[in-house]
Amino acid sequence: MECNCCPFECRVDRISQFGVCGAPDKFKIASIMAHFWEEPCLSGTRGSGTVFFSHCNASCLFCQNYQISQLHKGKIYQDEQFITTCQKFIETSGVHNLNLVSPTHYTARLIKVLPRLKKKISVPIIWNSNGYEKETFIKKLEGLVDIFLPDFKYFDNALAVRCSHLPDYFHYASRAIGAMKKIVNKPVFNQEGIMQRGLIIRHLILPGHGEDSKKILTWIAKNLGTKTYISLMAQYYPAYRAHEIPELNRRLTLEEYKDVEDCFLELGFQNGFCQELDANSPEYTPEF
């Protein structure tokens, strides 16, 4: 079967030929673990049950998880093994949710597997993606995914190509995130304050590109509303090949972060998460 589940539409079989992501036709997973550094309403007190998929359809030069996204560290899982492993992990760990990290390039397979998995677990399923997705495939996740946690990386498509090799990023991400919003509608939280259903849009502020961040926030406010949950991330540090882009070969300054945060407040957003600058440390990045 030809793969067309992301905007690249490589149309390869992922057995004898591999596409942009380089992923095989089976699930490849680097780690399944309780993660305590997601947004508070996701990590809670028992952690978010993160499934870190190997490979990625993006090629971010500054990727903090490059060992799995670009160097492809991981283990192959057959469908039944994936379901059983996730079920046992949820039952034994007590985590608040099952958090699928970088799932986009496995969308077609997950659409077939998630109905069976949902019957075996009682926690919400999170779709934690880079936002470079096809609206048509996002719509197929209705009833299968409870929480969408997409990145909204770039407004400027030239910047998206330069930093992440993602052509027409804004075109695809804006439509995909709009579809996510329609699927989950209003957010739902349990008595512990843990999100059970909803959308949280993440935006990583890049050094020297605060104006692009402001354009993203302005678009969200105008098109998705100021009640949308936003996670403004300060955790950038120059990882992997970031040194190849001069302005990205440093950490974010407090002034740069505050400038974007002020825009967030001026636009009237009512719900959001902010990070301290000390989040820009490798110690918060899982080891693979």
CATH topology: TIM Barrel
CATH architecture: Alpha-Beta Barrel
Shape category: globular
Low-confidence stretches: none
What is the count of helical runs?
9
Portion of residues in beta strands equals: 15-25%
Distance between the termini: 31 Å
User: What structural class results from the helix and strand content?
Assistant: alpha/beta
Q: Provide the CATH top-level class.
A: Alpha Beta
Radius of gyration: 18 Å
The helix content, as a percent range, equals: 25-40%
H-E order: EHEHEHEHEHEHHEEHEHE
User: CATH H level: which superfamily?
Assistant: Aldolase class I
Largest sheet: 10 strands, mixed
Number of strands: 10
What is the structure about, briefly put?
This protein has 288 residues and is α/β, with parallel strands linked by helices. Helices cover 32% and strands 17% of the residues.
Description:
- With 288 residues, this protein is α/β, with parallel strands linked by helices.
- It has one domain (27-284): TIM Barrel (Alpha-Beta Barrel).
- The protein is 32% helix and 17% strand.
- It has nine helices and ten strands.
- The model has no long low-confidence stretch (mean pLDDT 95).
